[in-house]
């Protein structure tokens, strides 16, 4: 049970839900052109499994390097050293990563594409160096983990784009698909864009929450280098970027005659973003900051599950 908690199953379930929700929507396009579903193909399921395994291993190594800080920031959630020995944590981390990388090798061979190996290998190494060093730097660690979050919908886009065109999206990114002018990859990139900025703000706010523990590690996070107030300003600006982008996107796509019902998940997401900003500026205690980044997580989930909602109302 303690090992399961170490993996952070709720976060892993969010990854699974996001990938399958996006796949369900993309399947509507794929069956239109190819006549078969990919969502429950063994290759897509393996892609989901490998992604979840890398994320789980990343959670383990993050807690492994955060034992000292967690004794101060989250003593009630401390698992490594308290319930699981450090050597077993590091062994399980590498075993899980090896399994995930083996799946990536299989997918690269199956699709004759080096990108699956490349993306998985880069992700594994970023998570290691993020946990061991970059997490305690100013902004860079936050950016890296936000990029990895944005990579989840992007991976699904790569998978489907490759199946539809027979070409890798990085080589032929603007190839039209039949009578539609929009590529699957573009939607994946858009969702990744939203996920990046929301998670970047969430990670920065978590640094405010973890300020006391980070002091013990001599970290150089934003709250410890530029003050909590300035960090709140930066977080607010980052949270507003997706909101302004949404408005611009709405006017750009106005000729498609978007209905109110089509944008309900995005409105829900925007509501929680605004609520998180209000809560952030009212926060002065650790528990308040924790609530703020939970509100941002709800906004992310609502946005990432939008394709699944569109599939239901279609």
Automatic annotation (TrEMBL):
Annotated InterPro entries: Prenyltransferase_related (IPR050475), UbiA_prenyltransferase (IPR000537), UbiA_sf (IPR044878)
One MF annotation (Gene Ontology) recorded for this entry: transferase activity, transferring alkyl or aryl (other than methyl) groups
Membrane topology type: Multi-pass membrane protein
Recorded GO CC terms: membrane
Cellular compartments annotated: Membrane
Residues spanning the membrane: 12-31, 43-67, 88-107, 113-130, 139-160, 180-201, 233-254, 260-282, 294-313
Alphabetical keyword list: Cell membrane, Membrane, Transferase, Transmembrane, Transmembrane helix
Pfam families tied to this protein: UbiA
Top-rank lineage group of the source organism: Bacteria
CDD domains: PT_UbiA_DGGGPS
Protein name: 4-hydroxybenzoate polyprenyltransferase
The species this protein was found in: Lishizhenia tianjinensis
